[in-house]
Amino acid sequence: MAVLLLRPSTYRVPLVLEIWAIAETAFFALIYVPRTIVLQRAATHPELLPREQRRELFKLCLDTVEDPEKYLSGWMRGAPASEIKRENVKELFCWAFLNKKDHGPEDDDELEEYADETELCLGRRLEPGRGNAVSLRVTVDRFQSLHRSLLWYFCVFFVDTITFSSLIWNSFHFHSLPFSQSFDVFPLRPFGLLSKQKTPAKTLTYWHRPHTSKARLPILFIHGIGIGLYPYVNFLSQINKSSNGRDEDGDIGIIAIEIMSVSFRITGAALEKDQMCFEIQQILRHHGWHECILASHSYGSVISSHLLHYSETSQLFGPVLLIDPVSILLHLPDVAYNFTARKPIRANEHQLYYFASMDMGVAHTLGRRFFWAENILWKHDMDGRQVTVSLASRDLIVDTEAVGRYLAQDGNGKPKKEEWKHREWKGKGLDILWFDDLDHAQKLEWRERFIAPAMNGL
Question: Which residues form a coiled coil (predicted)?
């Protein structure tokens, strides 16, 4: 018996599984580990605003905070007030307004001013010194990500193929990168080699459906974090059907931009604000679009903010549709905390955490390319525009109640209680579409209550 136990086993797993195991090991050691080290490099922050503009931005932030204690606790990862002391607050504001991890003597005057203003807002004194609270400083903290197997990327490839086929079926045309850049994204996209149309932009790919309508504007759509355009295929294909597009007037044209850095791929870093706006401008000019509707979902609202702030592109947009926007009241801690620091409990939180927050590309985009001060969209940025903002009551990322109250403020700065949740969509000025009992992105499937009223008038 002892001899049998010591004798080497002659059993081997199937050759296919051996090859797969070797490939997975090599992928982890040669791709994932080195890449995570490279991606942790320090962020290149935007150019620092002049002090007077920083002061105005700080005041604007405090003026739109409804609960100062909750605000501070959120940015301190839920720490109790007793652990949030003056130095903790100064450390947070050093990152938020000075784009730095550590402050020096040259910054004390400004940070003390911010701490004093915070005390007035709180209605109490901040204890001197430093407590045990740890501030949430997204672009200087070390971010976390989880390994994704080759099997996972095979699934992404499979979903990408379904998306490609579905969009082709719905009369969209893919505008790909040149052959030399086709290997900049993993998993590879061989169907892009079949496309005759090439993108006029340097890095952005997109889907285009020709615009033939004479009475309505075409639509530029920007998706959110997820597996690319797959969750939006039905939404995009239903736009013309819900607006009776196939009639004598023709079809509403659509350009759907692909943001690969937040689409569960291994690819280059997210584009900086100016480059993103410039490349989208090139795409719109290529198709002769001088005015269009700007529609975006979730993370796409950040890019929408850039496009509306950027003088070269802001004039190209008429009506604006923001679905589950994360860019409004972005100075509140909810988006940063819920996406990067919250410990998941419910099923939807685990889904967000594992599939989105811990993806390598998404984590890098939020941890090294997501600068709240340039991403935020204020209410006054929407003045003079026809804007529809769609919010869901059970959104697991955004404090939609706070966003809704902020947008519904009257001329005196007072919220219009709960009335704003039940108003009919008018398609004039600033409209709010409120959906009870729905979570982030769920309303995209509601054709009668969402797609038709929102897109018909736009």
Answer: none
**Contact predicate 71/65, CB 8 Å:** yes
Amino acid letter, 26: A
Residues counted in the chain:
458
The stretch 271-276 carries a mean pLDDT of 96
How far, in Å, CA of 194 to CA of 203, rounded? 18
What's the token pair of residue 303?
């890019």
* Alpha carbons 177 and 260: distance in angstroms, whole number: 12
Angle ∠(381,384,390) on CA atoms, nearest 5: 65
What are the structure tokens assigned to 297, written together? 């979902």
SS3 content of the chain, % helix, strand, coil (to 5): 50, 10, 40
Beta strands in 64-143 (DSSP E): none
Residues 6+ apart with CB under 8 A from 457: 425, 427
Tell whether pTM > 0.85: yes
DSSP H helix total and E strand total for the chain: 18, 8
CA–CA dist 451, 458 (Å, integer): 11
Question: Rounded to an integer, what distance in angstroms lies between the CA atom of residue 112 and that of residue 258?
Answer: 43
Please write the tens of the pLDDT for every residue from 339-394. Answer: 999 999 999 999 999 999 999 999 999 999 999 999 999 999 999 999 999 999 99
- Biggest alpha carbon–alpha carbon distance for the chain: 89
| Prior bond of 178 cis (ω within 30°) | no
Which residues, in sequence order, are CB contacts of 186 under 8 Å at separation 6+?
A: 153, 265, 266, 267
| Predicted confidence (pLDDT) per residue in 186-200, tens digit | 999 998 888 889 999
Rounded-to-integer distance, Cα 142 and Cα 335, Å:
17
